[in-house]
Design goal:
Layout (H helix, E strand, L loop, with lengths): L2 H9 L3 H12 L4 H14 L4 H13 L3 H14 L4 H12 L5 H21 L4 H13 L3 H14 L4 H13 L3 H14 L3 H6 L10 H9 L5
Helix pairs in contact: 1-3, 2-4, 3-4, 4-5, 5-6, 6-7, 7-8, 8-9, 8-10, 9-10, 10-11, 11-13
Length: 221
């Protein structure tokens, strides 16, 4: 992805394009570079909630979780009904000491909004896997498994579904099962750069299996 492509992603940052922009810039091009691009985008479109969300995600990968909260709150202020924003806010709070209650509250709001979308389209695997992750994060393992199973039934080879399965089992303390799903996500195309950079996989990094998967993963192209 060249610099002109990044500019295009910024200009058309919404929905799935938002996610593409995040994945392709924040890790493959390096978070620091993505940070610069999205800051420039905000100068052009200061009322674009997806750009604030992008900045939050870049901050997340850079380990600047308080900054992530600030950007994601701005995105929510502009588009409060987007469940992904609330989930991202919760993820940021979760990484900050003493913010557990705020994280749980944001996850619950994300769940409420996502369930409304699921009522319209019960087979939306993206919403299903998101609900699996959110329920896992508030300690509802049964609901998490229910939504995860449904997501995998709809789209069993989706990289994000497989990655979230890894996180759900990791939350449950089932490390070997988490590694199994991480391996599946790598084989489905989860790029090496993201395996290495994802803060949510920190607890696995010291394990020999993790380095093995890093070596097996394909670099982003």
């Amino acid at each position: 992805m060249g610099t002109s492509d990044v500019g295009c992603a910024i200009k058309v940052s919404s929905g799935i394009r938002d996610q593409i922009a995040l994945r392709e810039t924040s890790v493959a091009l390096a978070p620091e570079m993505a940070d610069q691009y999205f800051r420039r985008g905000l100068q052009v479109a200061p009322d674009d909630p997806d750009l604030y969300s992008n900045m939050g995600t870049v901050s997340f990968f850079l380990g600047r979780f308080n900054e992530d909260v600030e950007y994601t709150q701005k995105a929510i202020a502009l588009r409060p009904q987007k469940y992904e924003y609330w989930g991202n806010l919760a993820d940021a709070y979760r990484m900050i000491a003493g913010q557990t209650d705020k994280a749980r509250g944001a996850y619950r709001q994300a769940i409420s909004l996502a369930e409304k979308l699921l009522a319209v389209n019960p087979s939306d695997s993206e919403v299903l896997s998101s609900l699996a992750q959110y329920h896992s994060r508030i300690g509802d393992a049964m609901a998490a498994r229910k939504y995860l199973d449904r997501a995998l039934q709809v789209n069993p080879n989706d990289v994000d579904n497989l990655r979230i399965a890894c996180l759900v089992y990791l939350d449950a303390g089932q490390q070997q099962e988490a590694f199994k799903w991480l391996e599946k996500s790598v084989r489905a195309g989860y790029p090496r750069e993201q395996v290495i950079a994802n803060p949510e996989l920190t607890s696995l990094r010291s394990e020999p299996e993790f380095q093995k998967l890093v070596n097996e993963a394909v670099s982003f192209k």
